[in-house]
Write a structure and sequence with these properties.
Layout (H helix, E strand, L loop, with lengths): L2 E9 L9 E6 L4 H6 L2 E8 L6 H18 L6 H19 L12 E9 L2 E7 L3 E6 L2 E4 L6 H7 L5 H6 L19 E6 L5 E5 L1 H4 L4 H8 L5 H15 L5 E10 L3 E4 L2 E4 L3
Antiparallel strand pairs: 1-10, 2-3, 3-4, 4-5, 5-8, 6-7, 6-9, 9-10, 11-12
Helix pairs in contact: 2-3
């Protein structure tokens, strides 16, 4: 069956006194629940410069984790995660409408990763990322919802210009700014030894993909590895809150579909 270990770390950085990042997770309580529901990891980064970033990120994580725990067992993960993110968006949006917060800005990015059998499903809004690390190489599974990334995809600016642009943190999508939001979803196959890294822009904006892959591939305690990622990003920049979750895949349960039902493949 799918076996997972994970660690996480966060740091407010060198400039900010408050930390607007939030993380959460769901750990299955039995082998049966691991097969029918799976594991969940969530990271949210409150939009910097807005009044209620830490409120928005904490609320988003809370809603997604609670919804995953209460979801029907066996639900399709690519269908479930966007629905949970929409619920989180509505909850964050509603937070901004309360009497005591009316007129104050609220928003957050989010990236969620659910794992079951031999698959990982990733859904995100904004520029928090999920990396797939295999054989020491980190590959981003998410595509930033930012103005400069849209310009890059249209061929208006180069990759180098996007990376150095002063507008690189301007989001085109976030939770809480509108009543409805569209999450982007992707599914990848896993094998034993793979690692996944969820992180905010404070980390991936300070480290290269190669540096993330090298640090995340190290042996040892995963909380310490997550801390090394955060420390390296803060040392390199430190102008923003910095958070990482590191997920290590110890074993998987290969599955096949036959007449609409999943069956385990022989080892």
């Amino acid at each position: 069956m799918l076996e997972i270990e994970f660690g996480q770390a966060t740091d407010p950085g060198k400039i900010r006194t408050n930390n607007e990042d939030s993380t959460g997770f769901f750990i299955p309580r039995s082998r049966q629940e691991a097969r029918s529901r799976g594991w969940l990891f969530v990271l949210a980064d409150g939009v910097g410069g807005l009044d209620l970033g830490e409120v928005a990120s904490a609320r988003a994580v809370e809603v997604i984790c609670a919804g995953f725990a209460e979801s029907q067992e066996g639900t399709s993960l690519p269908a479930l995660l966007p629905r949970l993110i929409q619920h989180a968006n509505a909850a964050v949006y509603d937070e901004g409408l309360t009497r005591e917060r009316r007129g104050r800005s609220i928003g957050t990015t989010v990236v969620a990763c659910a794992l079951r059998h031999d698959q990982a499903c990733i859904a995100h809004v904004g520029d928090s990322r999920c990396y797939h690390v295999r054989d020491g190489k980190a590959v981003a599974l998410t595509d930033d919802h930012t103005l400069v990334n849209e310009q890059r995809k249209l061929g208006l600016i180069s990759q180098a210009e996007a990376a150095s642009s002063e507008s690189r943190h301007v989001l085109t999508r976030s939770l809480g700014s509108q009543l409805f939001v569209t999450a982007e979803t992707k599914t990848v196959s896993l094998r034993a030894g793979d690692r996944l890294v969820l992180c905010c822009d404070g980390l991936h904006g300070a480290l290269t993909d190669r540096e993330i892959g090298a640090i995340a591939s190290r042996r040892g305690d995963l909380d310490q590895i997550a801390q090394k990622l955060v420390d390296a990003a803060v040392d390199a920049d430190g102008s923003d809150n910095t958070t990482a979750q590191v997920i290590s895949v110890l074993s998987v349960e290969p599955m096949a579909m036959y007449r609409g039902r999943l069956y385990p493949l022989p080892a």
